[in-house]
Model the fold of this input.
Amino acid sequence: MSGSTKYVYDFDEGNAKMKNLLGGKGSNLAEMTNLGLPVPPGFTITTEACNYFTDTGRYPEGLHEEIDVHLAKLEARLGKKLGNPGNPLLVSVRSGAPISMPGMMDTVLNLGLNDESLQGLIAQTGDERFAYDAYRRFIQMFSDIVLEVKRSFFEEELTRKKQERGVGLDVELTAKDWKELVEKFKAIVKERGGKDFPGAPREQLDLAIRAVFESWGNPRAKLYRKTYDISDSLGTAVNVQTMVFGNMGETSATGVCFSRDPSTGQRRRYGEFLINAQGEDVVAGIRTPHSMDQMAEELPEVYAELEAAMEKLERHYQDMQDMEFTVERGKLYMLQTRNGKRTAAAALRIAVEMVEEGLIDKKVALTRIQPEQLDQLLHPRLDPERDYEVIVTGLPASPGAAVGKVVFDCDAAEQKSQAGEKVILVRYETTPDDLHGIIAAQGVLTSHGGMTSHAAVVARGMGKPCIAGAEAMKINMQEHIFEVNGLVVREGDVITIDGASGKVILGEAELIEPRVDKNLERILGWADELRTMKVRTNADTPEDARRAREFGAEGIGLCRTEHMFLGEDRLPLVRDMILAETDGERQEALNALEPKLREDFKGIFMAMDGLPVTIRLLDPPLHEFLPNLMDLRVEMEELKHTPGERADFEEKEKLYHKVRAEHEVNPMLGMRGCRVGISIPGVTRMQVQAIMEAACDLRHEGLDPHVEIMVPLVGFLKELQAEKEEIIAAAEKVIGERCVTIPFTVGTMIELPRAALTAAEIATEAQFFSFGTNDLTQTTLGFSRDDAEGKFLPIYLSKGILPYNPFATLDFDGVGKLMKMAAAAGREVRHDLKLGICGEHGGDPQSVRFCYEMGLDYVSCSPFRVPLARLAAAQAVLGKVEDATK
Amino acid sequence: MSGSTKYVYDFDEGNAKMKNLLGGKGSNLAEMTNLGLPVPPGFTITTEACNYFTDTGRYPEGLHEEIDVHLAKLEARLGKKLGNPGNPLLVSVRSGAPISMPGMMDTVLNLGLNDESLQGLIAQTGDERFAYDAYRRFIQMFSDIVLEVKRSFFEEELTRKKQERGVGLDVELTAKDWKELVEKFKAIVKERGGKDFPGAPREQLDLAIRAVFESWGNPRAKLYRKTYDISDSLGTAVNVQTMVFGNMGETSATGVCFSRDPSTGQRRRYGEFLINAQGEDVVAGIRTPHSMDQMAEELPEVYAELEAAMEKLERHYQDMQDMEFTVERGKLYMLQTRNGKRTAAAALRIAVEMVEEGLIDKKVALTRIQPEQLDQLLHPRLDPERDYEVIVTGLPASPGAAVGKVVFDCDAAEQKSQAGEKVILVRYETTPDDLHGIIAAQGVLTSHGGMTSHAAVVARGMGKPCIAGAEAMKINMQEHIFEVNGLVVREGDVITIDGASGKVILGEAELIEPRVDKNLERILGWADELRTMKVRTNADTPEDARRAREFGAEGIGLCRTEHMFLGEDRLPLVRDMILAETDGERQEALNALEPKLREDFKGIFMAMDGLPVTIRLLDPPLHEFLPNLMDLRVEMEELKHTPGERADFEEKEKLYHKVRAEHEVNPMLGMRGCRVGISIPGVTRMQVQAIMEAACDLRHEGLDPHVEIMVPLVGFLKELQAEKEEIIAAAEKVIGERCVTIPFTVGTMIELPRAALTAAEIATEAQFFSFGTNDLTQTTLGFSRDDAEGKFLPIYLSKGILPYNPFATLDFDGVGKLMKMAAAAGREVRHDLKLGICGEHGGDPQSVRFCYEMGLDYVSCSPFRVPLARLAAAQAVLGKVEDATK
Done:
């Protein structure tokens, strides 16, 4: 084996494509080196070496010697030597995995110092204070990471020294103070670690490399990988790099910069730096950093060099870069570059402008936008340009902003909401018992719980804004107040919450309504040119249909008629229909409902003139239209105790018994969908009549309605046959009477496993399949969404049993497998079978990609998600959707 | 085409194997003819001719001529001619489909008579009265079937004649009366049918053949085929056969006989006959028929010939025969033979004795028992040997007998049952609102509704006796009585119902307890020799385990621990466990439960010593162990109105809120199965501890427990991993402490579609799969059993949307497909994966066959169904289970 595997690469031996072997940091350092940028030289030990170490607890054969060789080369190149008292080489030892795991693993700086080489550093720099400070930093960091002597012992000592010296800041300590501290630190190591601090630099290096290897397996890194589904077998690389110092006086500096503004996308100077500081000082935020404009003034030559490097890197990577640099006594060093994170607005602007600049083409531009980011733009939100008085910030648990009065109690939330008031529910955390409060509120704010807490999961499921874990907020339930930094907010006070940023604002903030701006419009235009899969919308009202069409919807994939059975002019008729004791009574109720539905359909067809509209026949369990059984029972009980209300009691009791007869143990799996149409005469006929009358009315007005009638919850071919027969008879009757031609098709939802399993049979009758993945997920996984999202799903997500919420992103291995089986079997029987998806997954980018790959004709999603789906459908063609769960 | 297809076969041209072409009757007539038995000669027109007629409305080319040829041959053979005034040939024209459809299609007798040939008949027989009677019967039958002149017009005329003549019976009418009636009948035909009765016999024959062809498509035949899933494309054959007459005086007779007693199986004379009668007279039941013993006395020579024919046929068909015969003036004719229907007891005795007689071998014997029939023997039932005073008979809707007090109200049923009384629920019919009454009752009796009525379906589902549609019973709900034939039965009176026979008896009848008699034991012994699939039982108690072992169970396939969480010494602890506010409180409850479960497991392991016991960890939704939410709410309301109960109210309210937090919208798909074990610390550990402690106790006593621990409701590999980890840790802890070796395996239920779809992954951890087909049916079909069986399932069955109840017999195309996928994928990954089924389908013969064919290692069913499953498993090997749905 020895000699056959290369475990160490000089920076000039690698490149950006060797990420798996050299890690993200190592491969980018190599790339920058090859570009001729000023990177402090060094070498990278591969992930393969790490994996070997993880498996066996020791270096692979030959590694030690290979390190020696590369170290010698580095020393020769720089004319310095590790540990040399005359001209010592100092290095940093850093982890760098193929996938970034920020803060998870260890770093050691200033390695190579000991009592002897320290003298060399003093000689090199002429700065004793700096050298002792560097030495004590090294001892502290090395001891913590390698020797497992806790950082706090050293910090206590440092604090004691400052008190003793009567100063507040580290910078006020002198060289002598640091020198004394170095001795104290070494004593701590001996006392706590049981032996002397290791003085031999080559031993220091091995110990540090081993510590980095070991940090791959530390519990927090393991948990992180489990959470983000990163394979344990990747391993981390180790970068050994010459130290450069930004804290060598007024011509030294350290900073970060971006090649464009990551917040707006504008091409301008953006970044910050500190004179005479090390990287950790910038992060610690003790001193306020300066802007790039200031750097251009203060260090003009270095800045010009940096600007050229930025330009070069952006051109090279063809993307906006986020860079770290250090200036050591007037010389610039580039320490890191990577594609910069950016807001949705910035992502759009950068993509569009880079195309205009000829830097990238349209296809590449499309891959630069995370579809999920568009969600930020397509909800009401705070204006990022304005300053708000933020009273507390929590976790951004569910995007969108909302304004309302504070309530602490769920029943109160329900009552106020019913009285027309907008409320924000504020809780310590929520439980399933609070569901009615969440439903009633505009948004939810909790002081505890994380991104997968009950409140967060439920609110995201409902598309409501939510901020979780705003821990600075102290809730006093007795007094109905919360306190935050001394400010008291009372029940009834108005607040604004922004679930995308986690910000809470006192009072009513003006919100930005979602809109498609010109950058988004151009990107979506490019997406439309590229994509082959259509995007429709789920819309039940003319308003939603109009809005969705503005967002680019190419038809309706799901128009649910149940919406039309609600409303105070309808519900009493619907109840009559359900509780009718004779066919005559029922028909009377149906006759009264039909013209009302017809008007709704007219509005929808008008909004979607010329585009297909898929109408799903009545689907929900009937008792959803009836009074609540428990409420009735309680009202009965109350009437029983009210003297002289005998007649009322008896009427209530009668109603109670009727409603009880409709009651179901598992309504999701009960009398709903086509089972209603098949069991209750006239319900299907009435709906079809209303649809076709509406279509005929519009046809007479010269419009062009495209009708697709969809039968819900089919599991057996004969169900579809029975319903289709009734649909065709009712439709042809209307068409015959109205003397016009209305082409229409009849298809079915595929939302039960059995429908997917017998798709070949069902396709003999269905002209289209629409995958109802909400219900298909419920039945395939045996998850009642109403129960799961509030109960075991958060537990499953936190324990890593599920990688993500299967109601948001398709369960590819289970539900997806059924979908593929059904699509293939259906198309085998009927080559022109139209295939779509109308579950909420139709608006999820990863699921959209899956739908494209399995050959669906369209996805359908809520109006606000249409732009996102258009982009995702284009990215699917490019095969480049990032896996959002990673 | 003409000449190439043969459409007509003389009886001596066919045989018993040509059922599809010649129909059941035709092929058996041919077989008897070939055996040399005295069959009146004739010919059969094939089903192919019928199908051609059905498609085109006319005879196929050449058929008319072929009939002419065969008719001429028949005439030549008998020396008679159709319509010949001197020596007329009379024939019957009967339908005969490949699958028997009793009473569905048409028959014409005495065809060939007209005014001229009548004279020939008089001359032939010397019996004018007989001849006119025959003529009027022919006119009546032919007119009804061929000319569509209703039978009732003729019957009115006959009644009028009898009144006119002052007689009560047909036999009292004279030749003159019949002659006059013939003229009247012809007048009716002319008046109602618009033309003269057709006199030309060859035309009569064609009209009758066409009428039989057409009767294949009549609505009642179509409905029958739809109901029994018989293909419309089979068609019916038509048999044209020489008439013989049993009503030609005292040496003529007609009758039916069996080669063995169909009720007991004994080899003895069995049958009945009537002197001087036609077949329809026997059926009409106007005269009381005589026994075979009497026939042996009265017509000894003919009887000897008949006995020889019986013997010959039984030997030939190697099965008990049910035969029809006619004696015309001392000459025996065999008209029909078929395998006789028989009781379960008879089937067993016949099969065993035929093997002893060397007539059949054991394998054939096994195919002669319908497993479903055993169900009759394995429920408590009425003694068929005893006479009971039956007050009314209804439809045998769900087998088993029960004794109890009559109640008419479901709430009363519940109260009395809770007070320890046994009740029979008596209703007009039941609705879903009556479910609690059905649950509380020993059995159900309804005056309305059929075999698929709500009461019938629900009771069968619950395994409770039910008699439906006892229409002679008049229920008076106001007075809480029912009246039947003048007898008044009051609420509280004791009745006995036998759901296998539909009989209702006043008072408490002594019931036969189910047992395995010696014939059954021999059959099951032969079954055990043959079958390769094991039969286990579903048992939750030591008693059930013992009983099942007596019935031949080879282990427990499903022992549900939830049973052990009930009972008054446990439920309070279980509630503490669920409602615990701290881990400490919960652990305390668990600690108290563990020894109680341990005792249960000891009893079960003891009963199943040396055999495998699969224990399923706690599965049901937790709120099943909590008080009913609505009851709590009502109790709260009551306390609110009770002065001075403030403290009680508050306590109740607190409990209410806790229970409400556990409440679920769709409990079937909620917090249950492994989700409980994963979410609530300690629940799995406690169960495993109890199981392993019990096993260790027994091992120390020298017994041999085989432990299989089964994780319920797994959908994701990680669920099984998490549970398995905890199981193994808990088990090994006990084993280590107790210093014994207890081999155990860990497996999972496959009861969610996702588990089946990802079986390859799950099999990497599961040592066995047990298909939980009850839940798998619920999720695959999206049918909540609780809701479906009371609501839409009866509608679906009656409309033919489903061919059978998928909770009784596996849905092969949907659920079965998933099972096959899972079994194949699982075995691919783990070659020794043990596969079983523990849903109720494990006791259904068709499903057992399916399980055998897909390669399961065992089926598991309720104790009483074990014998049935043993037989079905043997028949599966023989591939000869009859399709019970046909």
Q: What stands out?
A: Chain B touches chain A through 63 residues (CB under 8 Å). Chain B is about 45% helix and 15% strand.
